[in-house]
């Protein structure tokens, strides 16, 4: 909200400077967003006289002028304004001056059709003072040549711009701001004359009937109207125009300007109707789907939740929001009907939202306006109309009832100290509350506090504490250390938080870059990656590719990879550790750790290097990343199931699932399915994995685990190699399991050191070579012992795999 | 020909042969030709047996002397040759150590500034005795608004630019949480239900000290707003926690986070439905240069909102506001990161541009701790 210093001074008797006022405003919670000198942009313009103006010989509309701008020399200026004439005084800009209405800096030494021109005589539009661009500004003859125009015209005032929080409807007028400043100790609040203005008989408009049926939403509470006959409307006086312009409003005519003055000055919105344009009876009712031509020159379709002021022809005004064009007050208006009404803030807010109309009335009424100001506001407006436009006020037309909260709070004064730590004397607390309009009664430790009608936001003790605190100043609250715990801090991170942290650092240590991508993705992507159900869709998405909560991190990472590729980086490593949404329930939110490698972005580096050229990324890179994270989180990939079951996004023959038992899936890895890659517009190889960090087994309850005793055998290990030929479809996992099972005490380890296929092992066959490590426990192995276990291994592997030992 | 002549000739021949041998193999051939079973020196030694005693007395030492002399020469030459061979091998094995290696994986992978900042925040608050709590991103209207004392239809709800979820099968009104404050209620409220998900922190009894980082969402996108961003919420509940302590916590946190010896804060009364009194906090800074410097200068920068937890919120969570009281605050993680590390554009945070992550990211093992220094 904007207001000028001189406007404030009409409500506040103070000697404080603009700086002191700005500091005080922020301290009491009316945050100053800007303090501007109104004339700052116009500081370089001066008053000047056109000493001579004669027609330009080479033009039919230009004049060549000699201008006296108080510099001691006459300045040559070519001027195109139709009203320029010898002897007139106007506003002059020297070369180098910024012209706000034109948004350029004036050049000097220019020649216009052969005549030199060193400056400019300006119109009001060029100074952005009004829309008048029909000619240059004409100043009275006594305007002093050479003086700064802003000083001469008195447009050098200070403009404050403050931000009002939604609870402070009372501060949406300059008067309310002054009340806060007075309570803060910055001066004395000046009272406004709200006294009734005598009437001259009854007006032609009767109190407006409230035409609502039982359970209809009814926004109107009390409607006060006043018919004023025979007004002389016209432009409002300069002081009022200047005041409105200073805060960014366009003066319209005296009556409309008065409604704006009361709205901004007292936070009490009004509306004025041209009474002669009202047809039939004025009533209050809800709209009936009518189209409404509003004063902002737009047409709105109103519905039956919105209250209107209507006549026989339809809505005249959308209640509490904006008036209509049909009954708008113009300079020709002679009979006016002034409305000052009290509305339900919630319903005003709802109508405002539905129509999208942003008006000064809505801004105030949805924050709530003092219900005690309905009739006084009408009287004030009447008085101002009489002052500026004359006329005969008729008897007020009043219907409905205001709603008063009449809140009373039992306020133990110790609450101030309890909640803030501030020691404030009881007298000071009382004084603050009183100056804010509260009535504090009683003595001792507790006061019974009556809340003023303009502060419906104050309902309980804590609200009163805030009132006291903001007047004392939060900066005066003594800082007190929060006591340290009297024990070592318990565990700070939960298991899942710890897992995320470890997963992140592990993946980064493997050369992957951490990305943070949107939680919402396109519907197609969500569906492709296992989501897309309605419960995970936004009702009001911000963009068509951000509609669905992601069921997987991969779409975001793959999109990121594609953007990098489009920038010319084909070798990309990205990972994310973040939330995915398997349903709309809290338990449907899991944390995944996922990563992608594209092109040749292998762990040892991408692209060509003198040490060797990196090959395309593939399933093994994905499996290695996944295994590294599992290992970092205490899960040995050798001890969980690696199943040849590809994820839906994966190449069916180059992807696997990591499982723990029949029910729990820990993750997936693989190469991106070529069809998915094509859908996502991604070229080249992609290796990807995802791990469900929530699916990992919970750690044991007891945090500290004793390690099993270290069993070091004194006998040397022996190793033996075997090669088998078997069907191509036999999995390595089954071979290893069979070999290990042949002798569980003696066999310490089994590794695969060679796998190959080729014509000499047979069509559809493969050869797998394993190395078995034997660890004797109680004696050195004899050849016979080794023979025996070897035979068992061969038997077990051939039996499980259906293969045979290669000779 | 006398024996002495034979010995001298042999010595001369063999010495020359040994000196001429330029490989271990030719030297060994000389050794065999001299000292081998059929070697020339061995043959001479063999003549001793047939000699008369007197003759042998003088011939023995002479021949043995030759043998030892030759063996010594061979040994010396052998050592020479071995040394030369090693030297030649080392020379041949020499490489250009200035050839660059590919960067190690740890030199390539980077942690996103948001994760790093959350880790930094965690490190500081853990020292003050706080633990970390979380709530769901898809939140019920109740937790996001109602429980936090946002009345239906209140303009403050509108200020949140809320993302609404399409109605799900359970018919519960859900939104994408517009702030991390709903976690406050989840932490405070008494519930007999088992926590539905492992990340949801079980409710706690006072005294409570938690910080709650997470993703938040608003339907807003421009130069300085993204529809998704990150906030961290703090909550302290006890029987005597007041604004004086709130000021201390925030000052200490900001000092530690920005790693400056002091910060000056300005508390402005403000309005949030879920706190009373409510305040916004500005930090003094210097904005004259290209980057914002915290802890110096004369400008103010709004950095967070805070206040005493509203009595209605305490009641909604089942706590008696005449017994328990406390304070809460919330601030933007992305914004803290931008202020500390100088990223100019919020939107780039979520673009997954590899160049950006490499430039603004952190080394995998730069784990922020208080004992090791927050940022190294």
CATH architecture classification name of the largest domain in chain B: 2-Layer Sandwich
Protein structure class of chain A = alpha+beta
When the domains of chain B are counted, the total is 2
Distance between the termini of chain B: 90 Å
Helical residue percent of chain B?
25-40%
CATH C-level category of the largest domain in chain B: Alpha Beta
Protein described:
The complex is a heterodimer of chains A (807) and B (376). Chain A is of the alpha+beta class. Chain A is built from 19 helices and 42 strands. Chain A folds into six domains: 2-38 and 157-189, Phenylalanyl-tRNA Synthetase, Chain B, domain 1 (2-Layer Sandwich), CATH 3.30.56; 40-153, OB fold (Dihydrolipoamide Acetyltransferase, E2P) (Beta Barrel), CATH 2.40.50.140; 210-400, Phenylalanyl-tRNA Synthetase, Chain B, domain 3, CATH 3.50.40.10; 408-475, 2-Layer Sandwich (Phenylalanyl-tRNA Synthetase, Chain B, domain 1), CATH 3.30.56; 495-692, BirA Bifunctional Protein, domain 2 (2-Layer Sandwich), CATH 3.30.930.10; 718-805, Ferrodoxin-fold anticodon-binding domain (Alpha-Beta Plaits, 2-Layer Sandwich). In chain A, a hairpin with a 4-residue loop joins strand 28 and strand 29 (446-450). With 376 residues, chain B is α+β, with helices and mostly antiparallel strands. Chain B is built from 13 helices and eleven strands. In chain B, strands 1, 5, 6, 7, 8, 9, 10 and 11 form an eight-stranded mixed β-sheet that branches. A three-stranded antiparallel β-sheet of chain B has the order 2-4-3. In chain B, a hairpin with a 2-residue loop joins strand 7 and strand 8. In chain B, helix 1 (3-20) packs antiparallel against helix 2 (24-35), helix 3 packs antiparallel against helix 4 (53-93) and helix 6 (113-127) crosses helix 12 (333-341). The interface between A and B is large, with 109 and 100 residues.
Annotation keywords:
heterodimer, A: 807 residues, alpha+beta, Phenylalanyl-tRNA Synthetase, Chain B, domain 1, OB fold (Dihydrolipoamide Acetyltransferase, E2P), Phenylalanyl-tRNA Synthetase, Chain B, domain 3, 6 domains, 7-stranded mixed beta sheet, B: 376 residues, BirA Bifunctional Protein, domain 2, 2 domains, 8-stranded mixed beta sheet, 13 helices, rod-shaped, protein biosynthesis (chain B)
């Amino acid at each position: 909200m904007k207001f000028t210093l001189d406007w404030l001074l009409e409500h506040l008797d103070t000697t404080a400077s603009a700086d002191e006022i700005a500091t005080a405003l922020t301290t009491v919670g009316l945050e100053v967003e800007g303090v501007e000198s109104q004339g700052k942009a116009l500081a370089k313009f001066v008053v000047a006289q056109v000493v001579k103006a004669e027609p330009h010989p080479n033009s039919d509309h230009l004049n060549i002028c000699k201008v006296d701008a108080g510099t001691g020399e006459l300045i040559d200026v070519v001027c195109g304004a139709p009203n320029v004439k010898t002897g007139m005084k106007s506003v002059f800009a020297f070369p180098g001056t910024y012209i706000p209405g034109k948004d350029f800096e004036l050049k000097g030494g220019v020649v216009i059709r052969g005549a030199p021109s060193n400056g400019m005589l300006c119109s009001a539009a060029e100074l952005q003072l009004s829309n008048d661009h029909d000619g240059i500004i004409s100043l009275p003859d006594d305007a002093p040549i050479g003086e700064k125009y802003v000083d001469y015209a008195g447009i050098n005032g200070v403009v404050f711009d403050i931000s009002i929080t939604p609870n402070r409807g009372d501060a949406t007028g300059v008067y309310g701001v002054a009340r806060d400043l007075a309570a803060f100790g910055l001066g004395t609040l000046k009272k406004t004359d709200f006294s009734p203005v005598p009437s001259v008989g009854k007006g032609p408009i009767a109190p407006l009937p409230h035409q609502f049926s039982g359970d209809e939403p009814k926004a109107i509470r009390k409607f006060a109207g006043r018919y004023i006959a025979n007004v002389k409307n016209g432009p409002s006086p300069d002081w009022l125009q200047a005041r409105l312009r200073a805060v960014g409003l366009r003066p319209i005519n005296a009556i409309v300007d008065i409604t704006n003055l009361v709205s901004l000055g007292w936070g009490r919105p009004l509306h004025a109707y041209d009474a002669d344009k009202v047809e039939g009876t004025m009533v209050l009712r809800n709209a009936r789907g009518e189209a409404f031509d509003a004063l902002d020159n737009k047409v709105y379709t109103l519905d039956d939740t919105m209250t209107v002021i209507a006549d026989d022809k339809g809505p005249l005004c959308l209640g509490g929001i904006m008036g209509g064009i049909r009954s708008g007050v113009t300079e020709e208006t002679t009979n006016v009907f002034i409305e000052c009404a009290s509305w339900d803030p919630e319903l005003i807010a709802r109508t405002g939202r539905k129509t999208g109309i942003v008006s000064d009335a809505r801004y105030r009424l949805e924050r709530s306006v003092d219900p005690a100001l309905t009739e006084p506001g009408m009287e004030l407006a009447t008085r101002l109309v009489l002052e500026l436009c004359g006329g005969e006020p008729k008897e007020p037309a009043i219907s409905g009832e205001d709603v008063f909260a009449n809140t009373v709070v039992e306020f133990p004064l110790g609450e101030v100290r309890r909640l803030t730590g501030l020691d404030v004397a009881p007298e000071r607390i009382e004084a603050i509350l009183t100056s804010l309009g509260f009535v504090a009664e009683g003595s001792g430790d507790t006061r019974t506090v009556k809340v003023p009608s303009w502060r419906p936001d104050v309902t309980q003790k804590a609200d009163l504490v805030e009132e006291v605190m903001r007047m004392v100043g939060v900066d005066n609250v003594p800082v007190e250390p929060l006591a340290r715990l009297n024990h070592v801090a318990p565990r700070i991170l939960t298991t899942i938080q710890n897992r995320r942290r470890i997963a992140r650092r592990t993946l980064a240590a493997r050369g992957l870059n951490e990305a943070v991508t949107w939680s919402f993705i396109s519907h197609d992507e969500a569906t492709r990656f296992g989501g897309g159900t309605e419960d995970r869709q936004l009702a009001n998405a911000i963009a068509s590719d951000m509609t669905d909560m992601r069921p997987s991190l991969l779409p975001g990472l793959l999109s990121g990879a594609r953007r990098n590729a489009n920038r010319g980086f084909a070798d990309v490593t990205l990972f994310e550790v973040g939330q995915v949404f398997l349903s709309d329930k809290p338990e449907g939110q899991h944390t995944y750790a996922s990563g992608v490698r594209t092109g040749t972005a292998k762990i040892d580096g991408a692209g060509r290097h003198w040490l060797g050229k990196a090959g395309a990324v593939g399933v093994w890179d994905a499996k290695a990343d996944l295994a590294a994270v599992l290992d970092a989180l205490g899960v040995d990939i050798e001890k969980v199931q690696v199943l040849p079951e590809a994820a839906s996004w994966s190449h069916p023959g180059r992807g696997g699932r990591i499982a723990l038992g029949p029910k729990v899936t820990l993750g997936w890895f693989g190469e991106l399915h070529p069809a998915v890659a094509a859908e996502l517009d991604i070229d080249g190889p992609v290796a990807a994995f995802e791990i469900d960090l929530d699916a990992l087994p919970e750690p044991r309850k007891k945090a500290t685990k004793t390690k099993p005793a270290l069993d070091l055998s004194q006998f040397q290990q022996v190793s033996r190699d075997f090669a088998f030929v078997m069907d191509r479809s036999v999995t390595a996992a089954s071979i290893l399991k069979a070999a290990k099972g042949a002798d569980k005490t003696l066999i310490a380890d089994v590794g695969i050191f060679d796998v190959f296929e080729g014509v000499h092992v047979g069509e559809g066959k493969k050869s797998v070579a394993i190395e078995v490590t034997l660890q004797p426990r109680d004696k050195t192995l004899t050849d016979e012992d080794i023979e025996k276990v070897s035979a068992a291994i061969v038997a077990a592997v051939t039996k499980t795999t259906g293969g045979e030992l290669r000779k | 020909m006398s024996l002495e002549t034979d010995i001298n000739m042999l010595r001369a021949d063999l010495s020359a042969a040994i000196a001429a041998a330029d490989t271990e193999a030719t030297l060994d051939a000389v050794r065999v030709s001299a000292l081998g079973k059929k070697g020339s020196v061995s043959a001479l030694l063999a003549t001793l047996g047939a000699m008369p005693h007197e003759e042998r007395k003088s011939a023995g030492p002479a021949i043995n002397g030759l043998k030892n002399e030759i063996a010594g020469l061979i040994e010396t030459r052998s050592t020479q040759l071995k040394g030369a061979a090693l030297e030649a091998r080392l020379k041949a094995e020499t490489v250009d150590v200035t050839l660059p290696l590919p960067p190690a994986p740890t030199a390539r992978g980077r942690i996103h500034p948001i994760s790093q900042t959350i880790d930094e925040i965690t490190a500081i608050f853990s020292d003050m005795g706080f633990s970390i709590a979380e709530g769901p991103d898809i939140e019920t209207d109740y937790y996001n608004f109602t429980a936090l004392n946002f009345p239906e239809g209140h303009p403050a709800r509108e200020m949140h630019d809320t993302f609404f979820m399409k109605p799900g099968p359970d018919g519960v009104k859900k939104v994408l949480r517009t702030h991390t404050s709903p976690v406050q209620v989840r932490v405070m409220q008494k519930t007999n239900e088992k926590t539905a998900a492992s990340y949801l922190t079980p409710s706690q009894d006072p005294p409570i000290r938690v910080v709650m980082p997470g993703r938040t969402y608003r339907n807003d996108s421009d130069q300085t707003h993204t529809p998704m961003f990150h906030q961290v919420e703090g909550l302290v509940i006890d029987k005597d926690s007041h604004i004086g302590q709130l000021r201390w916590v925030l000052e200490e946190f900001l000092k530690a986070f920005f790693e400056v010896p002091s910060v000056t804060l300005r508390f402005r009364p403000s309005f949030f439905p879920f706190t009373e009194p409510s305040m916004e906090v500005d930090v003094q800074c210097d904005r004259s240069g290209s980057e914002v410097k915290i802890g110096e200068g004369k400008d103010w920068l709004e950095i967070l909102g805070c206040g005493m937890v509203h009595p209605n919120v305490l009641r909604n969570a089942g706590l008696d506001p005449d017994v328990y009281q406390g304070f809460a605050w919330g601030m933007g993680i992305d914004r803290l990161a931008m202020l500390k590390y100088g990223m100019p554009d919020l939107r780039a945070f979520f673009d997954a541009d590899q160049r950006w992550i490499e430039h603004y990211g952190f080394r995998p093992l730069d784990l922020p701790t208080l004992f090791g220094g927050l940022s190294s």
